[in-house]
Amino acid sequence: MECILTAALTGILFALFAGQPLNILGSTGPMLVLEMIIFKFCHDQGWEFLPLRAWVGLWSALFLLIIVAFDLSALVKYITRFTEESFACLIAIIFIVEAFKKLFAITDKHPYNIHPEIPLDYTCSCYHSNFTMPDPNNATLMNITSQIGYSVFDMTKGMSTALNQNKTDSNVTDYSTFLTKKECESKGGMMMGTGCDTIVYHDNVFFLSIILFLFTFGIAWTLKMSKTSRFFPTFVRQYLSDFAVLISILCMVLLDLYIGVPTPKLEVPKKFAPSNDKRGWFINPFHPNNPWWTILVAAGPAIVAVILIFMDQQITAVIVNRKENKLRKGNGYHLDMMVVTVCIVICSLFGLPWYVAATVSALAHIMSLRKESESAAPGEKPTFLGVREQRVTALLVGILSGLSVFMTPILTIIPMPVLYGVFLYMGVAALKGMQLTDRILILLMPTKYQPDHIFLRHVKTTRVHLFTLIQILCLAVLWAIKTTKSISIVFPVMVLGTCFVRKAIEKVFTHDELKWLDDIMPDDSKKKKEDEEELKEDDDGDEETESLLGDEKRRLNEMKAIYGQGDKFGGTKTPFAQDRVNITEEVNKTGIWLQVRRDSMPVIRDPDQNNGGLHNRLGNIKKKGEKLQKNKPTCPNLTKLGHNQYSGILFKKCF
């Protein structure tokens, strides 16, 4: 109930007052680990957990207010793509791994038999505690039943049938018609028999859970990708893609109801009350069991909590605000942190979990609000236009989260494996579109099959692989620290440490390489200045070579001026170096289209000379171009091109 109330409260407040409402607040794994450490510490010291946690939250709110007041959120400029994608990839992997862990944890209550060929003994009965089992050679089970009332426990069905035939016996308890093993013991009974310790297997429960898990993910992913398929009209594919998760959940719930196997279901509180009946909603920070100096002790964990809250919130905000999403409105880092601070104060005083920006949920929110072009060239993917920036969806998420309390009859029929499949989908969907994921896939591809990524055009493949391996190493360290409970409290500090790792690799990679593989960090002017000096030296070496074509360059400029003035100087107006066909960006990047553009390059006509003169003049340019090709590799090989291409290419590529 506390999680439902927190989701509603923080969701509504953040949607109404945040600077970037595209973020979605939620409970994160690192925050849960921190609260578990605080709980264990309080248990060892004999202190009350919730009052101390309230002080930790109040101290954290104070520190966060200082961060907001002194504009310290501006430190997000040091969070580059390297840190963003390392953190986001870690959270996505956590979603995927936890989904499989939860799925296989079903076997704890519903184990499956890996040796079905071995017969099992389930002979087990519920007797009165003062009953002595007779010799089976002297009395059969039915004779015992006729003499003393007891319940025979049927382990295969998980229930027992009352066989109380002798109702006049004062020592006989009138058991109910159906008794479980726990109910038998609670009524003073005793389980006796050779098969009481035999494990009850529920193979159908576990294997059906696997089917529901995989089908939920498969249907959701297939429908999400159907937007670019060839089937159905565009508006049908759009709706299927937008409601992919909901459709997959509905299909699997109906399948589970039809089969009727008792798979584990979602547990929802039936009344609006704290999960612990011994406490109320408001938490008194001044508890008599806690010494007064625990108020000061709480400042220590609060510092760790502040680092974690700041990193969780701001890294997610940076990911949402990245330029690839083409957002038009402001960022609002400071305002977002202020709203989160208010939410933490409220949650601390009411014993509610702390909610911060959840990376995977925010990315799923961004993906659901993507805008794409309605039409494109045949065979081309739709062009990404941006994100619908609004507050309605986040507000509705908060409101519906609160109203879920009244939808208990509906929520209790949702199988847990279906929700695990949704978690798997969210984790995999969050990985899609990351540059880190693309670079990891490139590690496994031959060069000729690598996609045409922009960074591969400007950075050598070996350097890309080196950058990827460094990032994978940082990701592995974060995972090891997060999964090791004894040192997991330093996880937020290590996330912060990735910023220093990113700064250190500037000694390995050049400014130009980092510009394409990552974002440029501030205070990088020294490195940039050195690269500019190297570039200037290269340009000085080319000045002598470029002077060889000074006359031709001036002549071409004059001809271009004649083209620009049109008929004023008697020139024939010819389209100059422009695409004849309206094409998309993807087609424009292909090698075939580049060749088409070269072949269709127009010739600038000079009215003062005939075609023969133009031919002779271009022949001179060809000779000069051969010299230029030797000294300036960036200039195209003019000796292999037709005469009708010289003027345009020389002007565009060589000058």
Automatic annotation (TrEMBL):
InterPro entries: HCO3_transpt-like_TM_dom (IPR011531), HCO3_transpt_euk (IPR003020). Residues 527-550 are annotated as: Disordered. GO terms for cellular component: plasma membrane. Keywords: Ion transport, Membrane, Transmembrane, Transmembrane helix, Transport. Residues 1-522 form the Bicarbonate transporter-like transmembrane domain. Pfam families: HCO3_cotransp (PF00955). It is found in: Membrane. Its main location: membrane. The lineage of its organism: Eukaryota, Metazoa, Spiralia, Lophotrochozoa, Mollusca. GO terms for biological process: monoatomic anion transport; regulation of intracellular pH. It comes from the Eukaryota. GO terms for molecular function: sodium:bicarbonate symporter activity; solute:inorganic anion antiporter activity. It is a multi-pass membrane protein. Signal peptide: none annotated. Residues 531-546 have a biased composition (Acidic residues). The chain crosses the membrane at residues 54-75, 87-106, 205-223, 243-261, 292-311, 332-356, 410-431, 464-481. This is Anion exchange protein. Belongs to the anion exchanger (TC 2.A.31) family.
